[in-house]
TrEMBL record:
Domain of life (superkingdom): Bacteria
Listed name of the protein: GNAT family N-acetyltransferase
InterPro entries: Acyl_CoA_acyltransferase, PG_Glycine_Bridge_Synth
Species name: Lysinibacillus pakistanensis
Length: 234
């Protein structure tokens, strides 16, 4: 199967491919699922990116600057790094009543990692407790938010409750600046959800709301049948 990420014009599909996968393509297609995302153009100056933030977000980041965070970026995460992330995320998902990262989904994550298409970032408190993880897909100097998980403030000591509130904002802002320094041109915030809190969080980082298209296109009847069975099973 051939898979394309963030394409801006019709992809050059190999004739031998029976199934073509697309993630956040900008090319409209009735065969793919349409959704909204936010694109942050990292070619803008750091000052322009900062001024594009919402006022409340700038206020949070100013407060976060006073916290003694430790940030770790794994450009080539090890299997141990990713297993630790999976465990952290699944605890988060259970608490939030979200779908956990299953064995098959973890296999897909490992495959992406083997292709050099993942960046994992982690933020810890001054005492070394992990507060937040972010897992991004990276391809052709573009990045997209893939998974995000934060720890539970109710299970931590009182003096860590404020750092936890700011951790996700701080880590994402840190990552945007780091990606910019590394020559990346675009950050895709991931699909805009119906959840108002998540939607507001993503919109608070500025950027442009755009329509994107994702899914699979079968180029044979057998492949189409197999895709239909897979969708039915889900």
């Amino acid at each position: 199967m051939q898979h394309f990420y963030f394409v801006e014009k019709p992809a050059n599909v190999r004739k031998s491919m029976k199934v073509i996968g697309y993630t956040h393509s900008l090319v409209p297609s009735r065969k793919l699922v349409k959704s909204e995302t936010v694109h942050i153009h990292l070619t803008e100056s750091a000052l322009s990116l900062y001024l594009a933030l919402s006022e409340s977000n700038r206020k949070i980041l100013r407060r976060a600057q006073k916290e003694a965070y430790q940030v770790f970026i794994y450009k080539e995460p090890s299997e141990e790094n990713l297993r630790a992330f999976q465990q952290f995320y699944n605890n988060f998902a259970k608490r939030k009543k979200l779908e956990s990262i299953s064995k098959s989904q973890m296999e897909a994550i490992m495959l992406l990692n083997n292709q050099g298409a993942l960046w994992l970032s982690e933020i810890r408190s001054i005492c070394g407790q992990t507060l937040c993880y972010r897992l991004d897909i990276v391809h052709a100097k573009k990045a997209m938010s893939y998974y995000v998980a934060t720890c539970h403030s109710q299970t931590t000591l009182d003096y860590l409750k404020r750092p936890i509130r700011y951790a996700n904002h701080f880590l994402l802002w840190h990552n945007l600046l780091h990606l910019k320094e590394q020559g990346f041109v675009l950050y895709d915030m991931g699909r805009l959800m119906d959840d108002q809190n998540i939607r507001e969080f993503k919109l608070s980082f500025g950027g442009q709301v755009v329509n994107v298209y994702s899914g699979y296109i079968a180029h044979s009847k057998i492949s189409a049948l197999l895709l239909g069975v897979q969708k039915w099973r889900k």
